[in-house]
Amino acid sequence: MAATLTFELVDPERVLASEPVEMVVLPGVEGDFGVLPDHAPLVSLLRPGVIAVYEGTKVTRRIFVAGGFAEVNEQGCVVLAEGAQMVDELDRAAVEQALKDAEEDLADAKEPSEEERARLERAVAIARARLEAVTAKE
Question: Distance between CA atoms of 126 and 124, rounded to whole angstroms?
């Protein structure tokens, strides 16, 4: 049996994963990075994107995260996500509508504050990343 590390994924509502895995690839803000057993400790911010869970060389699960952060330590890899959902559960039509709505909200904002503009732009970025995840699964 190949070496494993403990992978835990938590979003504000629930624990989505707590299991031994051979490798995970995470969407870091500075680029995707893989975590294998005995990885050096680190903490990284995550951008909206997909976590790929591997068994050997095969991806067994793909999970969309809206951002968050990951900690790698001697026990394994813990991801605290702003929001997470299995890519297989995403509905393309709903994702496309959410992106359209987010883009319209941004376009319709009349002189928003810096905080409001940042919030609207973040919503668009998350919706675009979700659409990329859905498109990649097809």
Answer: 5
CATH number at residue 39: 2.60.15.10
Indicate the helix (H) or strand (E) that contains 79: strand 76-81
Q: What is the pTM of this model?
A: 0.89
Q: How far apart are CA 69 and CA 130, in angstroms?
A: 18
Q: What is the pLDDT of residues 78-121, one digit of tens each?
A: 999 999 999 999 999 999 999 999 999 988 888 888 999 899 99
Phi, psi of 69 (to 5 degrees): -150, 160
Range of the domain at 73: 5-87
Q: Are residues 32 and 99 in the same domain?
A: no
